[in-house]
Task: structure prediction
Amino acid sequence: PETITVQELAARMSERGADVIKTLMRMGVMATINQVIDPDTAELVVTEMGHRPKRVAEGDVEIGLADTTDAEGTQIARPPVVTIMGHVDHGKTSLLDALRATDVAAHEAGGITQHIGAYQVTLPSGQKITFLDTPGHEAFTAMRARGAKVTDIVVLVVAGDDGVMPQTKEAIAHAKAAGVPIIVAINKMDKPGADASRVQNELLREEIQVEQLGGDVQSIEVSATKRMNLDKLEEAILLQAEVLELRANPDRLADGVVVEAKLDPGRGSVATVLVQRGTLKVGDVLVAGAVWGRVRRLVDDRGQAVESAGPAFPVEILGLAGTPQAGDEFHVVDSEARAREIADFRARRDRQAELARSAGGRGTLEEMMK
Ligand code: GTP
Ligand code: MG
Result:
């Protein structure tokens, strides 16, 4: 067939029709379930949804394997990805730094650390935890607004001497909206005025019921500056991760999310990505948002060049032709031509959306001038 309906497309990908419609909407295409869409659009939807499209003939798109639902047995346990959120000055940065210092691998490597927007800690047991080291709320909201789900667990930092504050509530709202489980870290417990049970009662009013009050939310008393109970917090994270049964297939072309990206004067475009599925390798061709490139170099969170990065590994990519945006998804594709085609389409789509927005803006202005 030359064309395909939304419903047929959804069925071939084993996705829900509503999700295909949502993806189309994100691309600026309004469609109903029975609507016929052209092959170019269909191909993009397929890629956007994390599947591999296959064009069997000009004008026809055949959907390959439902890549997002990797077969049983291909998936292995992966580290949890954690975001730390909380009110201003409650100790998010201090806690991230303190947790980072618990990394046994970093000590072996001489303790060289580098800020790439995410890092991974290896515990004495060998288990790993990935922390997103980006300004919590903004990064979280930016990524959520773009439909990316990166965080498995939110660690909610509440200062024991200050209690639940406006941004604590905001963080709770974000985590709940995203359906991400919360672990409470009551920080600054070294301070004389700190009172954990007061904080826990305040949290109850926000419908966060900690284990100490009969609920199922883990709550740990910590001190970031005194490095107190960091191991307990990490244990709590691993326990939560076990409940979530986080798994991914490392043996496929990689995809994931851009955590941070910048134009570095010396190195060109540098994007920190979190691999979510598959293994990203040097030499891979990928599309990230409206940008494409061939991976020239991969650098880990300790500044070491690496050959590859598997699920839940944060890594810097060098070699992109442009700078993607935080929250953009990336997909490894099988050719440069294909990568360029997708990136061009998205750039065009973004420009059109931008034009439509500014035209809309003028429209309302004209309305006001009437
Ligand atoms: P913003 O990024 O500005 O929102 O702040 P933050 O949440 O990252 O807090 P940050 O880590 O910058 O800590 C704020 C202040 O609290 C700093 O002066 C820290 O030294 C102090 N602080 C953080 N954790 C602790 C702690 O466990 N005990 C004590 N006594 N002070 C702490
Ligand atoms: Mg901070």
